[in-house]
Amino acid sequence: MRVKKSLVSFITILAITAFATTALGKNNSGTASADPVATITQMVNDNVKADLTGDSSFVSKNYANNFTGGTSWGNWETKQSILADLNDGKSKTNSEQISELNVRVYGFAAVATYKSTYDMTYKGEHRARTILSTDTFVMQDGSWRLVASHSSEAAK
User: SS3 for 141?
Assistant: First the structure.
């Protein structure tokens, strides 16, 4: 009887561990993350670094394939259009700083809001402004992915 109880206890602990590992998800390095707020915060900051270096691999890895974004210039973007812009040789971020970052997690979804001030050349046109952004993340296949974004020009 004692062996049965031990086996049932072992199987129960194994199941709980497997569920907890899956539910917590993975961060970008593939290890389990107990703090999704820290993971999303790091992703937002890494996105800025990728913008400054023109690193398209960040978008490839961290944006959902069906990502949609509304820009502060009144345009829609997709993952594919962002990758094309990063590789066209006519777009470059000269400076970008974010502030007022706030991340809220709702189970397998998260929302990040922040203010961003940037100076860039986009398709050969100089652009500089401060925007308010809202990014929506969803846990997909054990990793957080950016699925939607919207930005509006900040009040002056």
Answer: coil
- Which among 104, 151, 118 is positioned nearest to 132, based on CA atoms? 151
Quote the longest CA-to-CA distance of the chain.
77
Taking the CA atoms of residue 83, residue 139, residue 28 and residue 67 in that order, the dihedral angle to the nearest 10 degrees is 10
pTM: 0.78
Show the domain range for 38.
2-153
Mean pLDDT value across residues 93-103: 97
Query: How confident is the model at residue 34, as a pLDDT?
Result: 73
Q: Which residues contact 4 (CB under 8 A, 6 or more apart)?
A: none
* Total domains present in the chain: 1
Q: Is the distance from CB of 114 to CB of 152 less than 8 angstroms?
A: no
Placement of tokens 């709980």 in the chain: 16
Among 1-5, 128-132, 141-145, the minimum mean pLDDT is found in 1-5
Structure confidence at residue 33 (pLDDT): 60
CATH number of the domain within which 147 lies: 3.10.450.50
